[in-house]
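Researcher: Next entry: Serpin domain-containing protein (Vigna angularis var. angularis).
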Amino acid sequence: MDLRESISNQTDVALSMTKLLVSKEARDKNFVYSPLSLHVVLSIIAAGSKGPTLDQLLSFLRSKSTDHLNSFASQLVTVVLSDAYPAGGPRLSFADGVWVEQTLSLLPSFKQLVNTDYKATLASVDFQTKAVEVANEVNYWAEKETNGLVKELLPAGSVDSTTRLIFANALYFKGAWNETFDASITKDHDFHLLDGKSVKVPFMTSKKKQFIRSFEGFKVLGLPYKQGEDKRQFTMYFFLPDAKDGLPALVEKLASESEFLERKLPNHQLEVGDFRIPRFKVSFGFEASDVLKELGVVLPFTVGGLTEMVESPVGQNLCVSDIFHKSFIEVNEEGTEAAAATAATILLRGALSSSKIDFVADHPFLFLIREDLTGTVLFMGQVLDPRAG
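Model: Predicted structure:
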């Protein structure tokens, strides 16, 4: 399977997850998450699974085998997620960490895999008497790897003496727009909320040509980031429904049509008429296990499938307890800063057109950050109210 096909599958998974997140976790609020970060943590769990548990994870991640998943992760880390800043592009940082109970040792094959394909740092820790300290250590790691943007990834009480492993992943992105906005012409305008009320928020504007495409019921805007010298091109896309309350229907459409993204992204610059985008800042966290279970990933959360991780009979009784995810994004005149982190705790249980086009984002919209050469989606989210952090 080539990288592009794997990424296309991963995007389909991301869109189905986004649809469920919008209806379950973020029905009435701004949200942002990194499908890529979650994908990597689930891939590591899959690498340590076998039998029906592994089959379920592979089916969900639309992958043929763990070999395929691991080589995909390895390619992503080296091809898509290496820092572009030295060559003049966006600042990117991507890190994996694994914390293992000191009385256990990882199976050599699993250890080598997380070391080489996932470039993970490994730590041997004392969950049995120092669970709180270990949780703090993971939180400090996530905060450091995301430049201080993701704090308290693991909530209080989420790690205890029954925890045996923690897998965590952190992603940080900071890109400057190819064409920055002039902050001196940013002005307050009305933004229409889903409940019919409106609020005043700062809108950025520009008279320069923009990458816009218009479809029946919605428009798509692409704002490219400075590219630098390598071939990767990162872009932020805004999906704006025509109707003020049209976002839920647009999310539904996005998730139900295969390769929807590929076919809808703008690739030509057009003259703009009225052009306004709000500044916004979103921080969002959730525990992903309920969403995953609803999407058919049930077995990793029950005992018996995670037998390929540790060298001990204890491996028979491991299961995933929680998958915590946190993301942050800020969009302003200069560009975008975004970060995400995901941690899975594994615990031990008893054996149980050409004319001018307008683009006025003055009502709820969807956004995503994507690397266009490969099609990798790094972040997705929605803005219902730009004032709410």
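Model: Note for the record: The mean pLDDT is 91.
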